[in-house]
Design a protein that fits this description.
The chain is of the alpha/beta class. The protein has 10 helices and 11 strands. The structure holds NADPH dihydro-nicotinamide-adenine-dinucleotide phosphate.
């Protein structure tokens, strides 16, 4: 058996089209244009790439997009002052502070300073609590698990996961835990595994839905996968690729795709699976923030 590839790129493109249409509609009906502010501190090259692509995508969606580039030596007082200004700016509906921040800045303090109704990353305690208590209509859900959830719904052709077992490998605050909460809210029976879990392959094999968010290249092998399972690979790992030339690298996930594709029912590739969904969901969250501010209904994705 060969699994169906879950084409994240195509689903992400579909989400962006819905966001564009709803943005135009919102502007026509209420005069409100969604606004996103991205704040980056320092010169981390990967973060610079992410921030540029977020800005480009926001413009493509028809948003107002502003990027604040701050020097690596910026104090947390100055960063908090900027967050305060953006919180008070009615034309901004989403604030994203690109992580990681330089070591001298207290990341937690900055995240908690963002107004919860503009926290499009979904990291503020208010949004974490809303997700945990099932208040999904007014929460911002972190973009990567939200995007992964949409891929699961598309792959299985349903939103209600009653009767299905889900195993999430990884318990981080940005992926594993919110992913588990989303699956639970959709009525799946959820187990969270991590580095202290005993006999992980056997546990993983109980999963109808297996999500890997670990950060270990191709750790999930075929013996982790129940025949026919839906496998979502969140991992992004850069490994050496000598076949592409000296010093070259390539991206792989946490799942050994070539082996697991023979066992799973559906599976995300890396790249082209969960990755493109993250930025699409950021746009969807920003639009939702603008809709809520304008008293309008965000589109169903
Ligand atoms: P973290 O490092 O924060 O968490 C990794 C989790 O994996 C931890 O809970 C850890 O357990 C668990 N773990 C580590 N080793 C093992 C093991 N041998 N067996 C079982 N569990 C293990 O990572 P993130 O959640 O931030 O990211 C996970 C992956 O997803 C990374 O590859 C990252 O690059 C990628 N990612 C991709 C995104 C995208 O847009 N597609 C966005 C965000 C992340 P413990 O808690 O016990 O230490």
């Amino acid at each position: 058996m060969t699994a169906t590839r879950i084409e994240g790129k195509a689903v992400a493109a579909e989400v962006i089209e819905k966001v564009k249409a709803a943005t135009a509609d919102l502007a026509a009906k209420t005069g409100v244009t969604p606004g996103i502010a991205v704040v980056i501190v320092g010169e981390d090259p990967a973060s610079q790439v992410y921030v540029r692509s977020k800005g480009r995508m926001a413009e493509e969606c028809g948003f107002k997009s502003v990027t604040h580039r701050l020097d690596a030596s910026t104090s947390d007082t100055d960063l908090l002052a900027l967050v305060g200004t953006l919180n008070a700016d009615a034309s901004i509906h989403g604030i994203l502070v690109q992580l990681p921040l330089p070591g001298h800045i207290d990341e937690g303090k900055v995240i908690q300073a963002i107004a919860p109704e503009k926290d499009v990353d979904g990291f503020h305690f208010i949004n974490v609590g809303k997700l945990g208590t099932g208040e999904l209509d007014s929460a911002f859900v972190p973009c990567t698990p939200a995007g992964s959830m949409l891929l699961i719904e598309r792959a299985l052709g349903k939103r209600d996961l009653s009767g299905l077992n889900a195993v999430v490998i990884g318990r981080s605050n940005i992926v594993g835990k919110p992913m588990a909460n989303l699956l639970l809210a959709a009525n799946a029976t959820v187990t969270i595994a991590h580095s202290r879990t005993r006999d992980l392959p056997a546990l993983a094999r109980t999963a109808d839905i297996l999500v890997a968010a670990v950060g270990r290249p191709r750790m999930v092998t075929a013996d982790f996968v129940k025949p026919g399972a839906c496998v979502i690979d969140v991992g992004i790992n850069r490994i050496p690729a000598p076949e592409k030339g000296e010093g070259a690298t390539r991206l792989v996930g946490d799942v050994d795709f070539d082996a697991c594709v023979e066992v799973a029912g559906s599976i995300t590739p890396v790249p082209g699976g969960v990755g493109p969904m993250t930025i699409a969901m950021l746009m969807a969250n920003t639009l939702a923030g603008a809709c809520r501010a304008a008293g309008a209904q965000p589109p169903v994705l």
